[in-house]
Amino acid sequence: xxxxxxxxxxxxxxxxxxxxxxxxxxxxxxxxxxxxxxxxxxxxxxxxxxxxxxxxxxxxxxxxxxxxxxxxxxxxxxxxxxxxxxxxxxxxxxxxxxxxxxxxxxxxxxxxxxxxxxxxxxxxxxxxxxxxxxxxxxxxxxxxxxxxxxxxxxxxxxxxxxxxxxxxxxxxxxxxxxxxxxxxxxxxxxxxxxxxxxxxxxxxxxxxxxxxxxxxxxxxxxxxxxxxxxxxxxxxxxxxxxxxxxxxxxxxxxxxxxxxxxxxxxxxxxxxxxx
Length: 275
Fold this sequence. Notes:
Oligomer: single chain
Number of helices: 11
Strand content: 5-15%
Radius of gyration: 19 Å
Order of helices and strands: HEEHEHEHHHHHHHH
Low-confidence stretches: none
Helix content: 55-70%
Distance between the termini: 35 Å
């Protein structure tokens, strides 16, 4: 599947992601420094990009996790909504000023860790390195055994059944811009699902969670999941084509959704066999 100007686009996307991370570092230091212990970046934004599937604008997030200090909240005024809108405006303003010739404005995914760290199913993966911390310092050790991670990952795989059962009614009457909502919904599941499958097959789940998508693709093929690997690769390559069409080619968007559905349904079949 051909992507126009592949190397150029990947280089531009990397510049965009680095600009995004730097802007959020500025925002946290400027507006929230007295409220947070640390902020770090994880996911595809921090991994090595070897092929176009390793990062796809809009399908891929820039995952930014932050931990609040004790008894602190991010927003403190009586109108938290307005505070949030202003921060959103600042992100766009700072980003465009610092990187005016952008390919895209990356979509950050901010996650407050305080409640997550109380969740017994929350796993610190991949390993957080010193260079991933943009504010403060997070010192995490592996908080789950390999078997515990496998159990958690299998549970998430089995939970795909409800999502897949509901998708037909969600897609049947959609058109145009409505596809984007379904694509976003799927993207949250497609990215981690093959990793969760591989955690059932590999010796070290932590190592698997640290792999980029190019290496995930290799491992899927190594374990004989060629059909799943094909859909996984097709999903992200089609994602680039959808992005290049400015999300206006509904035929491409349907192809993207089909590939995403196949990734999830094939993974669910695997999970049900080993459960």
